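Re-run with default settings, no changes from the original entry. Doing this only to confirm the output is reproducible before filing.
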Amino acid sequence: QAGGFLLQLMPGVTGEAAEALEQTILAMPPITALLGAGKTPEEILTDLLQGFDPEFTEKQPVAFCCDCSREKAARALSTLEPWDLLDLMAAQKTVRVHCDYCNTDYGFDRPELKAIYKKLKEEKGRKKHGEENGPQS
């Protein structure tokens, strides 16, 4: 288990109130110890916000998730200059795009990289000829 606090002071909060919160946090046991002892997040927050009369209006589950995808990785490659993509293709059989958040690797082989390169060249050609949003009718 792991836990932590992220507090944001709202406009109008006095320095005294901020100081009281800080002192309460410093005096509290580690969050993992509180969770391990069976305290709920609401109980921990009630302890933390003693004297502030907290009101819980919504509850949301917390989950680790990443919205990366192969398509997003391909879009990241398409932000390169065409010559940089050519350099990558010359140096490697497969180009790997790594998501540092979820630790997923996406490999792109030469045929895939060539397709990305071709699309890049077409887009650069349209921009060069003033057709950024596609051909005009």
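The radius of gyration is 26 Å. The first strand starts at residue 94 and ends at 98.
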